[in-house]
Amino acid sequence: MPDLSKIVKAYDVRGVVPDQWDESLAELFGAAFVRVTGASAIVTGHDMRPSSPGLARAFGRGAAALGADVTEIGLCSTDQLYYASGRLDLPGAMFTASHNPARYNGIKMCRSGAAPVGQDTGLADIRELVERWAGQGAPEPAAAPGTIAQRDVLADYAAHLRGLVDLSGIRPLKVVVDAGNGMGGHTVPSVLADLPVELVPMYFELDGTFPNHEANPLAPENIVDLQAKVRQLGADIGLAFDGDADRCFVVDERGEGVSPSAITALVAARELDKHGGGTVIHNCITSWSVPEVVREHGGTPVRTRVGHSFIKGEMARTGAIFGGEHSAHYYFRDFWNADTGMLAALHVLAALGEKDGTLSGLVAEYDRYAASGEINSTVDDQTGRAAAVKAAYADRPGTELDELDGLTVTAADWWFNLRASNTEPLLRLNVEARDQATADKVRDEVLAIVRG
Question: Where is the Alpha-D-phosphohexomutase C-terminal domain (predicted)?
Fold first, then answer.
């Protein structure tokens, strides 16, 4: 019996292939997905990992066996799968493990219109069925099995994104893009085609073994090559995508990383101006600058927990036009509330190309505070260490505490958030202050308690 507790996470399926899951299990997941969603048709896609095509086909076989018609879009980014789910109005399954090492793979599932499937929205039920069928045998096939057909949606996806951002009048830009051997190498050429952009590709060869560096641009060591290339060529901007190309990280003309909070604020301002106001969702570790900019542009900021299911849930509840996270996930109402780093990148290119000047000058308006970045501490007792931090600040004059997601402590000149990892024995600390010295002081105070 497979131990599904190890691979079924809060928002997706992810584990080592074939040790923890394989094509036979993928076939059961396909059947369970159809049973839980009640779908008569679905769409599937996959990334460039060696195991991805076989897993996606097996999932499709399981879905078709229970009577669902399957549309395979083949190689794609995760946001391209969301596009297909939204445009075709079908539940979808994307086979990827994002930035995890090559031996991993996973499934990101959604309902029609790219609505998320997580533990509380069907994933727990899917797991229960797969566990039962793995022990008792596959379910009875439908009297009439579904069909399996292929469809290429890359050009339509690219056209849809370009239709959401006007880039027709931008000045010529030199843009370096590091795809990390991931799916950005597949999507970027189509999305940026026919724009006044000199594209300098880095690691566009699709290779799920990630021979150059891990496809996780939030880790500083993975953007070193991009930073060097931007400086070497005097480029206007650098973009780095993760393995499944749903996250985008931005580097300015100096080769310096741009905070995803600053990108969130910049895109929020543009979306608010485009829509004449609206609600913008941000999580509890984005910068103070995000709600400030939202209010300055006539919008309403709404703070939520970290994680795409919470962001998407709040967007659906509030009718928000945009949502951003400090992890470089960006969500758009015009994209079925789903996340697409590519659309955020187009907004940044448009903002930069509409004016003279540098990217660092442009984003300075949105990058207003000093931040620690996320600092991880390995601890034996997450609950006890977090409680000790809470006790230390509970009665401190001039501070406010909330526990929307972990512990957030806010004062006049600083705030910090301390959250436990769901999957590792870690506490994650983020600090922001009005100046660097204060940020460093608060960081050191909290870490001294956390690390004992």
Answer: 374-447
